[in-house]
Structure formats: C-alpha cells, structure tokens
Amino acid sequence: MRAEVAEVACPNCGVGLKALGGGRVVIQVCTHCGSALDAVDNFRLLKTHAELPRPDTPLKLGDKGRIQGVDWVVIGILGWSEAKRWTWTDHQLYSPSHGYAWLTLEEGHLIFSRAWRGAMSPTWMTERGIETAEKPPEIAARGQSYRYYETTDAKVTFAEGEFSWAVMVGDRSKTLSFMSTDAMLTLDQGPEREVEISTYPPQAETWASFGIKAAAPLRVHPLQPRRVWRDERFLSGLGAVATLVATLAWGVLQSQGNWVEPRVLPKAGGLEVEAELPITTTTGVVELRIRTDVYNAWAGIETEVTDPSGTVLFQNAREVGYYAGIEDGESWSEGSQVTSIYFRPTEAGDYGLSLSVPEGGAGEGAGGPSLSRPSLTVYEGRAASMWMLMALVLSALMAGLPLIRDWLHNRARWRGSDWSDD
Amino acid sequence: MNLFRLVMIIATAGTLSGAWWLSVNGVGGESSDLDRSLRTGSGGNTFSNSSVK
C-alpha cells in the first residue's frame, strides 16, 4: 500500500500529478509524458510511452459522478483494442467508501463494472472448456444463469492516471464473458483469476451526473435493457381485444350465406349438368361447390353461367384431381374431389348454369373422364372473410407487440456472441 | 386518455369495421380464374410433379 500523498512530481518530465485514487493504487501514469510510475515504490519511473493516441472519451481525470447511489471520481483512463477493429475505453473509478470500479465507454454506451467475489457454479471456466463444450456453457451466480457470450483478447493502447493493478501500455488481457438477462460476468484468464460483474447504468442520468450531455448510441449493447414504449401495454391490450373480436367475426363470416336449391334441368345427360339458380341477393358472392368422385384420376370441368337476361356472365375451366395410396407403409393423399367457383351476381333473378366434363383420365393419363356425374351445391351471400382474417393477423401482431419487441431486442443483444454450434 | 390512445382505438375500430364491411359484401371474393376457357386453362394433369405413382 502506498503512502497517502496529495500530489507527486513526475520523475521524467516534472509535471505535478494529483493523487486521487486512495491507498491501493499501484501504478500512476503521467498525463503529460506517459511515464508509468511505481506508486508503491516512491513513484519510481518504470516505463515511458510518449505520444500515444488518446481514446475518444469526454471523461477526464478528476471528473466526479454518481452511479448506483455512490459518488465516484475518475482516477485512470485505459484505451483498449481488440485486433485493431474493436476499441473501447475503461475509466477506473474510486470512491473512499466503496473502493474501485470501472466505467467502460463502448460505442457510446456506459457500462459499470465491479469485482465479483460471490459464489459461482462452476467456480471457474477456461477457454479450453468453452472450445470443447457442445452447447454454450452457463454459470450460475446471483440467482441467475449466465450464458457464454464471447472470448476477448485485447491489448492496452493508452494509459493515464492511477490504477489499482499493475497495468502497462502493451499489456494483453484475455477474458471470457457470460451474460444473463441484465448483467455480464467477465472471467479474466490471467494468473490472478479476477471476476467482474458489469451492468448497464441509466445512461442519461449517469452522463448528467458527470456534467456531460452525450448523444444516444445507435446500436444495441448486449447489456442494454429494452426500452418499453409508454403505450406499449395499452397497445397490446387493445390488440388482444381486437384479436378476440376479429376471431369471433371471422367465425361468423365463415358460416355466412344461404343455401340455394338449383333447379336441375332434365335435358342434360351423361356428365353434363344444366340448372337454373334462383339468386335473391347481390350482397356477397355466390359459391358454386362442385363435388366429384374422382379417385386416382383427374377431370377438367367447364362451367358457364348466364345472368337473368341470358347474357354470359363468365366461363370457367377447372381441374380436379384426387390421388391416394400407401407408400412405405404410410398412406398418402393429394388433391381434392371438390372445387368451388365464386362469382358476384349483378342482379337478383334466375341465373343459368351449364356444366360439362370434356376432359379427364385415370392416373396421369388423358384417356377420358373417369367419374360419375358431378353434384352441385349453391350458396348465395357468401362473405369474403379474407379481410377479417387480415384484420385478425394485424390485431394479433399488435397484441404480441411486447413479445415481438422482446424477441428482436434479445436477438440484437446476442448478435455479437462468438459462440458457434460447429 | 391521451390523443395517441384515442387515435389507436379509433383506428382499430375502423379497421375491424372496414374488414367486416368488405367481407360481408364479398369484395374481392370472386374467383380469380373466371372467363378462362378449358382449352387455354388446362394443360392436362398438373399433378405430374407429385408423388403419383
């Protein structure tokens, strides 16, 4: 433990360095010339790293702020880099009553970390253990489960101020991270086996306590809690009510329509059907349901409908086919013996229907129709219930809004994990 | 109740009412293959890519 001092002079450049960090500081790095001084050996000069690129942080040594109800002062700043692609800045914090902590600035997010000396199961995890695991390993601690997130191999690129551990520019650190719903355990794979727990403090409040106004970060941080919209629960409840209403309405619409008894004319024979359809309403559509008895066969059915004045309303050609059998001990079937044609009547009155089966065949062949005379069922006033089905889907999406947002947020949180099932 | 909630209630009620009206009146409920003749419409058995033996 070093002696209590208020200020020391750098033995390399002579600049006065404030001592803010309490009795457990072991290294002090000169803010002017980058010299590392041994704080437990009368500030002996250890090494000098001049003109290192300064990390991009608005915090500086001596800044004071409040996190989790505790007043902290920034005593040291460390720049980190992983494979020159990923950079972040650690700020060592000191509180006379609570000791040491870290405030990390990563892509605009502030993360608060402290040493964790509580119980864990398993008590330790190694990189080898991660590599040989078949599924992401988990650690139980604080009544939560922490799932493996990533392995980090980082290098110190910048240092200034005081530190409670012997750190130098160029030092490397390999850590394993495990994440729960709201915290991260970081296992330092160095000789001292340190464990830290990181949480996501309220960002605006934390920045404000340091007297800094910072812009909101763009990307989602793994520890970032999902932001709940003010009216999210209301929208979800409204969606649930709408889903119930739409489901009931869809059920009613499905059964809407009146049976119409066609007057089948006797002049047709064979597979042909001639009929008059007494339609009484123009609301909704008319369904012509044609039922056949094709079996392992197909048939081409031609239909022509005329309106009450005798004008052809439409012509239609449909193919029905039904195939079934047993393959490898399992029965299968495909297609349908029934087809429905929907049309909109232009006026109430007797519509003419002409139905014939000019083509067809057994199996895949075209040897001629292989079926009995088709039967006909007619309904008028049928609803186009697809609209209500679409409203039902929209309502269900609104009802599930919190769950959908939870899922998207969790996916964004775990996107940076380096776990691979391969 | 704030304006947003009021708007959402009206929008939801409007959507359900609109869906009901469109459904009951059969809007868009006609078959899409009307006015199709058998000669142009049928190419024989279209189940040829199935598991038919």
Gist?
The complex is a heterodimer of chains A (422) and B (53). With 422 residues, chain A is of the alpha+beta class.
How would you describe what is shown here?
In chain A, the strands form four sheets. In chain A, strands 7-8-9-10-15-14-13-12 form an eight-stranded antiparallel β-barrel. Chain A has helices at 127-132, 203-209, 232-254, 386-399, 401-414, and strands spanning 7-9, 16-18, 27-29, 35-38, 44-48, 64-67, 70-82, 86-95, 99-106, 109-115, 138-141, 144-163, 172-179, 183-188, 195-199, 258-260, 263-265, 273-279, 285-291, 297-306, 312-327, 330-336, 338-343, 349-362, 375-382. Chain A is of the alpha+beta class. Chain A has five helices and 25 strands. In chain A, strand 20 and strand 21 (312-327) form a beta hairpin. Chain A folds into two domains: 7-209, no CATH class; 258-382, Jelly Rolls, CATH 2.60.120. Chain B is mostly helical. Chains A and B meet through helix 3, strand 20, strand 21, strand 22 and strand 23 of A and helix 1 and helix 2 of B.
